[in-house]
């Protein structure tokens, strides 16, 4: 009897037929999810691609990985099920006992032991996985495709274990007694003195494994991500050695994350955010902060959800939802029926509770993939995730007070913090110093929106007065400079509304970059700017920028004139990073068209 | 070799040096063999360089100081 209500599905329900054919039974883990057949379909496809798809490591090796991960996580359900599957693949009871009690002395090959060591470490200590672990696997003769498969299988095992903890299905067979299990701590690859331990060296910019090029135009999963997310996350680009698994992952994202019939997309993104933050996965935190921004949640709010959702503006029910998923995602052994009842008490339906469990499982899957592949961030994270004790109200969730690892804002670097505090305490000189520091930024933000340098100077006075008026309300959830730009933005839009020329900066739908194609294809001269004086170049550029539509002008001004990073521009303008990137490219190409007649090789001009 | 359209789809990240190694390799191969994309890449890089180094929309310090002085004088005077 699992935690949630189930329904009877048609005997011909595809995934169940497939389970019967491949395993000889339908696992209770999937019977427990019958309220949402689409999530069963997604998981079955993912499981088949990862475990049954043709690859370089064998089915037996994959099942061994799942078994060891499940045992390390003390998941009786998954240990029982995958022990049975290995038995059906020809492993004797004695071999399985040896595998579970001490796989390092079970007579496996060096490569098999290395794979199990790696998977156990990735599943239990993901943030400490580093390039040295991958080199150890390569040293045992494993190629990049095999290592990729090991990462994918480990991620799948975490997916299954999270589901099992959250749903508590009855074991499908007589449960194996986990008390006799003695999993040794992960062996460090550096123990032989060849590889440095700890996180990989800073500055490394490439993922651990080789990938192959796939076209964003013709490769289905990439088209899917581009269309639905506005970009192709690096976590998927890094898995192109297994396109079939990528297809299944795209389907899982589509059927679990992108649907809105049960939980809202904002709730789901928030789940991804808090669980990723608790797993110290800054890659996923950055992605899902950006996704939330695209859904209309301001950066400072999504940052706050990641750091401590209890201090955010979420409803009480949504905070309870995130407490639930945090506990399940990070402390599954403490998760119990009362947690499910508590969520029901906040008005969540059975389907919503089920989808919360599945979303938590998907988060652990994605987090494990990213840590195992060493994927570089798609976006910058403005703060550093560190380990701290989470602060949650005792009445809300007592067990979590006992040492849950949670993120903290350890790395916020706002050089203005001291002056802001003084200014908020009423020291006018501090405010004056702050606005002098950022006067160029404020002015350029105003020009960007108003498209008129003279009016921007006039509007600057209004913006500064408005900033002073609202200073007490600044809560340091964002950088002070970001807040100042938001004030300047509002001032500029007020003026535009006054003259009825409002052109919104909002992204709305993800923009496609098909509207604009370059027309000028004449080559430019070498060092073309040498033929013009500095002031001529400046005038030319200024006229070109002022001629851009507002939404392109704003991005080009902040990125190329003010030289903020793309991620900072997205935060300053409240746009997603993919939207900023599309607009930046278009704006730059429009400027290129504008400048081309002056700089192509056919133009002959004497130095002024 | 990838097509010009595929090159264009990755062009923004290529300019920003944010592509993964396997994508960069394909883009570099394409640029080395396609004259049109070579011109596009070269001229867009030059555009970015010219724009970033142009010193455009530089608010003169005297103008900035004058605006800030007016604002602080008004704040010191208190609500009107």
Short précis:
The complex is a heterodimer of chains A (608) and B (80). Chain A has 27 helices and 2 strands.
Explain how this protein is built:
The complex is a heterodimer of chains A (608) and B (80). Chain A is mostly helical and 608 residues long. Chain A is 58% helix and 1% strand. In chain A, strands 1-2 form a two-stranded antiparallel ribbon. In chain A, 53% of the residues are buried. Chain B is mainly alpha-helical and 80 residues long. The longest helix of chain B is centred in the middle third of the chain and has 18 residues, at 35-52. Chain B starts with a helix and ends with a helix. Chains A and B meet through helix 20, helix 21, helix 22, helix 24 and helix 25 of A and helix 1, helix 2, helix 3 and helix 4 of B.
Poorly predicted parts of chain A: 189-204, 388-411
Inertia-based shape of chain B: elongated
Helix content of chain B: over 70%
Structural class of chain A: mainly alpha
Report, as a whole number of angstroms, the end-to-end distance of chain A. Answer: 85 Å
Biggest sheet of chain B, in brief?
A: none
Number of strands of chain B: 0
Strand fraction of chain B equals under 5%
Oligomer: heterodimer
The strand order across the widest sheet of chain A is 1-2
Helix content of chain A: 55-70%
What is the approximate shape of chain A? globular
What's the order of the H and E elements of chain A? HHHHHHHHHHHHHHHHHHEEHHHHHHHHH
Poorly predicted ranges of chain B: none
Question: What's the gyration radius of chain A in Å?
Answer: 27 Å
- The gyration radius over C-alpha positions of chain B equals 23 Å
Task: Supply the number of helical segments of chain B.
Answer: 4
Q: Largest interface, per-chain counts?
A: A-B, 63 and 48 residues
Q: Which structural traits does this protein have?
A:
heterodimer, A: 608 residues, mainly alpha, two-stranded antiparallel ribbon, 2 strands, 58% helix, 1% strand, globular, B: 80 residues, elongated
């Amino acid at each position: 009897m699992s935690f949630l209500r189930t329904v009877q599905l048609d005997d011909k329900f595809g995934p169940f037929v497939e389970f019967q054919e491949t395993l000889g039974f339908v696992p209770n883990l999937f019977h427990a999810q019958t309220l949402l057949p689409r999530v069963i379909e997604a998981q079955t496809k993912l499981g088949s691609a990862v475990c049954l798809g043709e690859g370089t490591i064998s089915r037996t090796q994959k099942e061994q990985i799942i078994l060891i991960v499940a045992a390390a996580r003390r998941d009786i359900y998954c240990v029982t099920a995958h022990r049975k599957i290995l038995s059906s693949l020809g492993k004797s009871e004695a071999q399985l006992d040896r595998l579970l009690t001490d796989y390092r002395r079970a007579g496996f090959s060096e490569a098999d032991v290395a794979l199990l060591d790696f998977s156990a470490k990735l599943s239990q200590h993901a943030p400490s996985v580093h390039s040295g672990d991958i080199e150890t696997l390569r040293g045992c003769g494993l190629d990049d495709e095999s290592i990729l498969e090991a990462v994918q299988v480990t991620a799948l095992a975490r997916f299954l274990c999270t589901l099992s903890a959250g749903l508590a299905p009855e074991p499908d067979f007589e449960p194996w007694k986990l008390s006799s299990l003695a999993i040794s701590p992960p062996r460090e690859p550096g123990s032989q003195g060849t590889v440095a331990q700890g996180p990989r060296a800073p500055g490394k910019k490439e993922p651990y494994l080789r990938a192959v090029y796939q076209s964003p135009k013709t490769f289905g999963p990439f088209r899917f991500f581009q269309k639905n997310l506005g970009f192709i996350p690096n976590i998927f680009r890094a898995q192109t050695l297994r396109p079939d698994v990528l297809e299944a992952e795209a389907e899982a994202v589509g059927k679990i994350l992108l649907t809105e019939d049960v939980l809202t997309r904002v709730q789901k993104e928030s789940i991804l955010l808090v669980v990723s933050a608790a797993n110290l996965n800054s890659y996923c935190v950055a992605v899902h902060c950006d996704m939330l921004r695209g859904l209309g949640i301001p950066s400072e709010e999504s940052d706050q959800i990641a750091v401590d959702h209890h201090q955010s503006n979420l409803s009480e029910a949504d905070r309870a939802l995130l407490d639930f998923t945090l506990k399940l995602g990070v402390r599954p052994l403490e998760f119990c029926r009362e947690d499910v009842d508590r969520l029901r008490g906040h008005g969540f339906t059975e389907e919503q509770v089920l989808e919360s469990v599945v979303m938590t499982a998907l988060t652990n899957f994605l987090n494990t993939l990213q840590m195992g592949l060493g994927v570089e961030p798609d976006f910058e994270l403005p703060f550093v995730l560190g380990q701290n004790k989470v602060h949650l109200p005792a009445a809300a969730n007592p067990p979590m007070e006992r040492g849950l690892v949670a993120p903290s804002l350890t790395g916020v670097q706002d050089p203005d913090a001291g002056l802001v505090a003084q200014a908020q305490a009423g020291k006018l000189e501090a405010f004056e110093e702050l606005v002098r520091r950022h006067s160029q930024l404020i002015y350029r933000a105003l020009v960007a929106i108003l498209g008129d340098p003279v009016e921007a100077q006039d509007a600057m006075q209004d913006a500064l007065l408005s900033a002073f008026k609202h200073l007490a309300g600044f809560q340091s959830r964002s950088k002070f400079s970001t807040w100042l730009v938001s004030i300047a933005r509002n001032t500029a839009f007020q003026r535009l509304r006054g003259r009825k020329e409002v052109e919104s900066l909002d992204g709305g739908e993800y923009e496609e970059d098909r509207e604009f194609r370059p027309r000028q294809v004449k080559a430019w001269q070498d060092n073309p700017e040498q033929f013009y004086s500095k002031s001529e170049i400046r005038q030319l550029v200024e006229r070109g920028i002022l001629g851009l539509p507002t939404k392109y002008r704003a991005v080009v001004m902040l990125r190329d004139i003010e030289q903020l990073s793309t991620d900072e521009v997205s935060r300053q303008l409240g746009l997603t990073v993919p939207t900023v990137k599309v607009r930046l490219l278009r704006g730059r190409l429009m400027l290129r068209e504008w400048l081309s007649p002056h700089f192509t090789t056919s133009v002959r001009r004497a130095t002024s | 070799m990838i097509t010009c359209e595929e090159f264009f789809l990755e062009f923004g990240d290529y300019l920003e040096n944010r592509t993964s190694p396997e994508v960069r390799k394909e883009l570099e191969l394409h640029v080395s063999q396609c004259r049109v994309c070579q011109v596009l890449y070269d001229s867009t890089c030059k555009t970015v360089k010219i724009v970033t180094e142009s010193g455009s929309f530089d608010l003169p310090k005297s103008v900035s100081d004058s605006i800030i002085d007016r604002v602080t004088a008004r704040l010191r005077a208190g609500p009107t």
